[in-house]
Amino acid sequence: HEMGCRGTSLNSRVVELVVENCRSSDGEVEGLTDEYTNLESLCMMNVGISSLSKLPSLPKLQKLEVSDNSISGGLDVLVEKCPNLTYLNLSGNKIKEMSSIKPLQNLKNLKGLDLVGCDVTSPDDFRDNAFELLPQITYLDGFDREDNEVPDSENGELTSSGIYGNPEDDDDDDDDEEAGPPDDDDDEEEDGSEGEVGLSYLMKEGIQVSLWVFVAFLGVGQSSES
């Protein structure tokens, strides 16, 4: 009994939990209970679940990643068990209809939602319809309504591991290229033009020298005849 109490106490201190690639038993991940009262981030990628119905009550959970499973609906359970979610990753699941994500309307703090690889994203007007259906979200599949990528400053708020990447890296690369030394091609072109000028100059000089030699030769010939 003492060990059980101690285990419960330790679980209540856990803030982030990753159980990806583990096999679930009948839709339930063994050991994942409502004892994790302070859990803020939970990753259950590729654990073989088809439903979230057996997810324990996690009132402080903010980030939930359940990508690469077989979930097709039943998302209303999240409103009851994880009411404070700010980021939800459902990529690679079997969600096909917009009606399946409609329950997420009641997750008032939800800012980021990922549905990459789900059939529901196939229609061309999916993004417009999703933002209309879920007006509280800011980012859908990593981009906002104007197709701007999620900035790095908000990465920590939306995900537990910065899965959106850092778009500022690309800007740094561009700056490095602009700030770098001038291209060798420009130098070669300048060198080439200088070489052409130098060669034509030498040719002109050579012609002048030849003319002077020829004139001097004629002068010597005339002196000899006289």
Structure, described:
This protein is globular. It has 226 residues and is α/β, with parallel strands linked by helices. Helices cover 38% and strands 8% of the residues. It has a 6-stranded parallel sheet, with helices on one face. The model is unreliable at 1-6, 158-180 and 188-226 (pLDDT under 50). Keywords: Chaperone, Chromatin regulator, Cytoplasm, Leucine-rich repeat, Nucleus, Repeat. It comes from Nothobranchius furzeri. GO terms for molecular function: histone binding; phosphatase inhibitor activity. This is Acidic leucine-rich nuclear phosphoprotein 32 family member.
Quick overview:
This is Acidic leucine-rich nuclear phosphoprotein 32 family member. With 226 residues, the chain is an alpha/beta fold.
